[in-house]
Amino acid sequence: MSECLLEVSDLSMRFGGLLAVDQMALKIRPGEIVSMIGPNGAGKTTVFNCLTGFYRASGGSIQYKNQAIEKMPGYKIARLGVVRTFQNVRLFKGMTVLENLLVAQHRHLKTGLLAGLFKTPGYRKSEEKAMERAEFWLEKVGLTEFANREAGNLAYGQQRRLGIARCMVTQPELLMLDEPAAGLNPNETAELDKLISDLRRDHGVTVLLIEHDMKLVMDISDRIYVINQGRPLASGVPEDIRNNPEVIKAYLGEG
Amino acid sequence: MPESFFYFIQQLLNGLTVGSTYALIAIGYTMVYGIIGMINFAHGEIYMIGSYIAFAVLAALAMMGIDSVSLMLISAFVISIIITSTYGFAVERVAYRPLRNSNRLIALISAIGMSIFLQNYVRLAQGSRDIAMPSMISGGWTFGPEDGFHATVSYMQLIIFVVTFISMTALTLFISRSKMGRACRACAEDLGMTGLLGINTNQIISITFVIGAALAAVAGVLLGMYYGVINPYIGFMAGLKAFTAAVLGGIGSIPGAVLGGLILGVTEAFTAGYFSSEYKDVVAFSLLVLILLFRPTGILGKPEVEKV
Amino acid sequence: MKSLRFTPAILSTVVLLVLTSLMLGIRLEPSGVGLKVTMAETSSLYWIAAGAVVVFFFQLFRAPIDRGMSGIKQQLPSVPKEPLRQIADKKGFKTTLICFAVAGLMIWPFFVSRGAVDLATLALIYVMLGLGLNIVVGLAGLLDLGYVGFYAVGAYSYALLNQYLGLDFWSSLVLGGVLAAFFGFVLGFPVLRLRGDYLAIVTLGFGEIIRILLNNWTSITGGPNGISQIPKPSLFGLEFGRRAKEEGNVPFHEFFGIDYSSTYKVIFLYILAVLLVIATLFVINRLLRMPIGRAWEALREDDIACRSLGLNPTAIKLSAFTIGAAFAGFAGTFFAARQGFISPESFTFIESAIILAIVVLGGMGSQVGVILAAVIMTVLPEFAREFQEYRMLMFGLMMVCMMVWRPEGLMPMKRPHIKIKSKKSETESSVKIPSVAESV
Question: What is the C-alpha to C-alpha distance for residues B146 and B64, in angstroms, rounded to an integer?
Answer without folding.
Answer: 40
